[in-house]
Each structure stands twice: as C-alpha cells, then as structure tokens.
Amino acid sequence: MAGRIPKPFIDEIILRTDIVDVIDTRVPLKKAGKDYKACCPFHEEKTPSFTVSPDKQFYHCFGCGAHGTAIGFLMEYERMSFQEAVEDLARRAGLTVPYEGGAAPAAEQGTDLLDVSREAARYYRAQLRDHPQAVRAVEYLKERGVTGEIAKEFELGFAPDGWDNLLRALGKDEAAREMLARAGLAVKKEGGGYYDRFRNRIMFPIHDYRGRIVGFGGRVLGKEEPKYLNSPETPLFHKGRELYGLFRARDAIKREGRALVVEGYMDVVALTQYGVDNAVATLGTATTRDHLERLFRYTPEVVFCFDGDRAGREAAWRALETALPALHDGRQASFLFLPEGEDPDTLVRKEGREAFLARLATATALPDFLFGTLVKQVDLGRMDGRARLVELARPLLSKLPHGVLHQMMLERLGELSQVNSEKLATLVVIPDAAAPARQEPRSTAGPKEPPSVARLAIAMLLQQPELAAKVPDEGVFADLDLPGMALFRAILQLLKTIPNLNTAAIIEHFRDTEHQAHLEKLAVWRHPALEHDVGAEFAGVIEQFRRVSAKVRTEQLLQKQRFDGLTSDEKAELAHLLSKKRRLDDFSSKT
C-alpha cells in the first residue's frame, strides 16, 4: 500500500535502537542485574517496578502492566503517532524513513507539513523585516515593550494584509497549495481556489515540545475579529495538547521546579523578556489533562495564573477540576490571581521581575482554593450547611487519585464539616472514580487457563528468538491443527527468514493485528519452563509437536486405508509411522 513504512525498515530501526537509551533520556534508569529499573512513568509508585530489558528491547511495569517496544514507549509516553515514533527513532539512527510508493499517505505526511510550516515561519519573519506594511507591526511590538532580541528569540513574524500573499510565495502549484491548506495556513474555497488564513497579523509560531513548528497564532493589527487567531486542528497541531513556549521553557521549568501557566502569547513573551522564563500558555482553550500530564513530566508543580475578576476565577475553577485527577502524590497545583485589569504582560512590565516573583510565591494552593471556594457557598454554623459542604466536595474529591493528598483532603473536609474522616471516606470516595491508579498486573501471570503447548512454544521463541535455529524442518508439523499453531508457525517462518530479529522486532511485525496484545503479554510471561534451561524445554516442545503431528498423520492414513486405499508411497509412510510408534511405545514401557 502506498505510503506505508516498509517492514524491513522497521526491523532495521528496532535493531539499531537501544531502548535503554530511548527511555533513560526521559525516565532515568538504574542497572538491576541484566535489566534496568525505574519508578513507572505511567502510574505513581514509590518502589520501582518498571523494568527495561536490553536483551528483549522491551519494557514492562509489574505494577500497572504497561509494556511495549521503543516505538510503543514513544507512542505512550510522548503521545506520538506510530509514524512520528518511527521518524523520531530514525533521526536518532541517522536514517530517513522510506515510504512505499515514495511518500507518506495523505493523512500521515507529517514531514511535508513540518517543512511547509517551517517555510511559512521563515516567510513571516522576512515580512516583519522587509514588508512596507510591517511598520505598523513593529510599532505595535515596540508599544508593548517587545525588544528586537526577544522578537528574534520567539521567531515573531508578520502576515501582510491581502488574500494570497503566502499563497503566491509558497503555493507554486496545486499540490503546494493543498499542502498549505492541510497545514492550516490557507483556506480552500468551496467554489475552488484558496486564500491565506492569516492576514494583517503579527505571527507567533507555535512549537511542539520537540521544537518543531506545528502551528501559528496571529494577533490582528486592525479592529477585525477575532483579535487572536490560532491554526485550526491539523495532523500536526492539536490545541488541547500543545502549549505555547514549552520547548524553550522546559529547561527553566526543570530548574525552577515549577511551570507557570498563563493565557496569552504576549504573557509568555513579556515574562521571558523580564527573566521569568518558565511560563507557557494554553492556545485559546482551557487547560486539558494532556497539557498537565505533559507539564508534570518536567516538574512536580504547576501554577495557574489568572485575572482576579469573576471570569478569571471561573477559569481557575475549571482548571482545578481538570487538575484533580492528575494530582498523584508528589504533584502540586496552585493559583495566582492578579489584580483586576492586569495580566502577566502588563504586571511584569509595571512592577518588574522581583515583584512578580514575590506575587508568585503567594499563589494559593489548590486545596485552599477548593475549600475556600466551597466554604463561601455554605453556612458552617448550621448542620445542614456542613452537610451541604460535604455534598459539594464529594464529586471533586472523588476525582483525586488514591494516596496521601486524597487522605489529607478528606481530613480537611472532616475538620470543616465536623464529620469523622473515616466516615467521610465511605461517603466521599466513589470507587470507580477514585480507585488507585495501580492496576492488577496484566502480563506477568500469563494465561489464567493451563498453557497450551503452542502458547508455551510462542513464548519461548519470543523471549529467545535464537531458538528458531533449533527447528531444522518446520514442515514436519506444518499442517498441525492446534490452538496457537498458526501464530507459532508465522513467528518461526519470520525468524527463519530474518534470523537476527529480537523480541521487540517480532512484536512490531504484528502491530495492529489481533496478535499484538497477546505477544506483548507472552514477552514477559514468567513460566517455569522459561526460567531455566529453555533450550532443552524448547526441544521437548518441538518433539511433542512431532509426536502429535505423527499421530494425526497416522490416523489420517489409517482412515484413508479403510475407505479409499493407499498409494504405494502412502503405504510406506504409514509403515514407517507405525514402526516408529512401536519403538517409542517399547521405550516408554521399559522406562
């Protein structure tokens, strides 16, 4: 199929990739015997149960059951698509991803869209420098106190007024114009043709967490609406996942130990200019769970910054509700409310860096904001008022993950409502919503029913692919019809064709098939036959296959002999099978 990544290239990527290096740059690992360990990045834990096997090139958490290859890790941890994960690993290996048919499918042309976005950013920067209309844009930036250095750092640009400036510059043919539309930079008209999406606007390139330009925001210079316009949703840009300024702020966020979430591009630009460089902005949308999970990978604390007016407090409350499920133990959220009519941009310019940081130090902790807001809605002097407080708090506290913070919030509610916290635990905790993040291990126990011989053979091949060389003639049981044999034969044939595949590469061959989840479980299955002399156990399994196959073939020939008669070759085959069976039976009786 055109546009798909060839299987041999995925094999090469897996074989060239060290999963330990991929994960260690994101989750620091420690050597533990032949494997590596860390606290799981997918659920909160104090004792490391997340294991990375360099032999299998596979990770597995014995706490929550998360597991996968290097590709799978990038998809889960970084929220990449399959193609993005392969592209990322290919860049690490110094390779270019080939696509069958010469190009990625239309829905997966991420590289082309990235190229278009990068060229558009270069065009907008040139217009801010050279276009006659840009005088107004430069004057506006100067009025807002933006220096040339900071404008360069954030790669600010200018989209001139007019319907087709960008199209004339970059849309040389229909394919290029279509790509501009797919990147959200042009709009396709119903009657045919295109026009520029951004016109007469100061342009703010939006980088993803890896520094790639995936979208744009534009601030209009006239009185047109909307004042701020973002790129639409595209294969590259999803406003519910991206945060403006995160790529350049992430080192500062790690250094400061907290991230400051503000509402606008200019807030981030101004704060950075004044030395507060750990700020990011949402992109015309409320803070999402994806935003928070991304930030919590860099820091244990997130501070939301809002206006102190009614709208600001309502926005803060929505952020609180979103943050609650993400507050595993060790994570914190706070709220900084600014004087009415001020935003971070105006306030930092008016008061300076030190005064702004002093305000930041007084941010209200999420528990205080939560209970302070609820208490204002009830009369704690009345019994029914305290009961009302419990009812208001109940759905909110039920969103919190199980842990120390959850318990402490219950105790605080108990103090305010004058109800014993143990009693509250039975009233407040909704099991489905507030259950511990830890799940029952899904992979290590293996199948609950007694394992079939084929399943055991698959696990052996998967965990030690070199065993395939011990099967000189797989045709002996090619027609053996046992549960799991078709998959066993497929893996065996794969390893005969490509002998150097490791566990991860085998699993990637079965990605997006009905077998993927089953193979991922078997890759970490702990069974006595997989713990010691696996070679001898595997030889025994193959011999068992041979015996069953011989038995089945003998019964087939005997059945045919009774009804249709046998050819001379079939008679010789049956005689050989019966003779072999007698020898085995004699041997078994003597031993």
What does this 3D model show about the protein?
The protein is an alpha+beta fold and 591 residues long. Helices cover 49% and strands 11% of the residues. The strands form four sheets. It has a five-stranded antiparallel sheet with strand order 1-2-3-4-5. Strands 13-12-14-15-16 form a five-stranded mixed sheet, sandwiched between helices. A four-stranded antiparallel sheet has the order 6-9-10-11, with helices on one face. Strand 4 (58-61) and strand 5 form a beta hairpin. Helix 17 runs antiparallel to helix 18 and helix 25 packs across helix 26. Keywords: DNA replication, DNA-binding, DNA-directed RNA polymerase, Magnesium, Metal-binding, Nucleotidyltransferase, Primosome, Transcription, Transferase, Zinc, Zinc-finger. RNA polymerase that catalyzes the synthesis of short RNA molecules used as primers for DNA polymerase during DNA replication.
